[in-house]
Prior knowledge:
The chain is mainly α and 170 residues long. It has helices at 6-29, 42-69, 74-100, 106-127, 132-160. It has one domain (6-169).
Amino acid sequence: MTVNNGLILTLFILIATCLALGYGFSVKAGGLPFTPEIGFNQKQWQFLRWWVKLALVTGVLLPICLLALDWSQPSSWVFWGSYLLIVAVQLISERVFSRWLVPSIVVPIGFFYTAFRLWQLLDGFTQLKFSYLTLVGFVVVGLFWFANLIMLVVIAIPTIFEGSDSISQS
Length: 170
């Protein structure tokens, strides 16, 4: 069974949503050692603004271009359609839950969705047929999301974890 089938995508969205809701309500009630706000310092906010623009280009626009390049491949439609669906659900979840519950909820949502996206990409690598150009684009997308996961662990999570000596506290 592939990652990019309807059942797996639906289950992931449901589980990620339940985890996000649990995080949000627990942080709001003071039951988890995480802060409601993201404690980025000025340099981290500047980096994040740049990083979000890079994510838009590398994580959304480049995959749309890769889909356009492989327009005639049905497997490409299934893969990139599933990928873009997960990106859209992530962005909607982050927007809604950060306004409704706590702003720091974007960090665990980003972590769960980035990890799942890497699994999608690994699965897609075995299923798609690549030209040299689409392979390079695919690898760039994968490397960006791997770097995003590292950024979340190294920079973002420490700014919301109350027991952490994060860079923002320096």
